[in-house]
Request: fold
Amino acid sequence: MTSTMIIMMIVFCCSTSPHSRHHKTDCWLKKNEEIFQSHAAHYSFSPDWQSLADSANAVILHNSQRHAILHVDANKLYQIQENKLPEEYKSVGFFFPMDTVDELDELVRSGQEFKICDYLLSSDTNTYILKEEECKRTRFMVEFELPYVKFCSNPLYDAVLQYGHLRNDDSLSWHLRVKFYSSEILYDAKDTIHSPVDQVTMDCNNEVIDLYVLGGQQVIEFSVELPRDINPRFRA
Reply:
């Protein structure tokens, strides 16, 4: 007989006003019966966070000048080597592609296209360092009429989700695009839903991408099945 331990985790963060003399973010992680507290001065937190392998948790932080990664479990703050990027790059989001804190991808907007910048964690300098001087081009073109963006990356594919309200429309529109490394085909799915707010969560898996959209009085799930005829390969 074998037994399986189920780890229950809850992460809660709050930030003071960025105009405060004591601008900071505090996070609390409840892992089963233990509570871990972490702290970062002069940063606000992003509502996007990622639960990683080995039950690690990371929160994206930001201020008016830069981004950083807070490892909630270890209470360690890591800078990101964004100062090496061209000034015209606009940061859109971050994702841990290997499900560990060791590698980090950043989606940036460069003109009319999205690019992905890859970082490696340097424990010696407490910094995420760029792997290459040039960020990777993608086939995802920016849809400027959809102002909000989420993305994910993993050893199989990159995915970009854009969403928002078109003009004065009372419906939320979303457009998901997926590019597998083993294929030149750009897959996409789109839909609209009556919703007064712009709140969407994306969960990326090997066989399906789940979108959770906040409607008028309920949360609506869209499950986008990924093509099964793809021959996946890992990135070099």
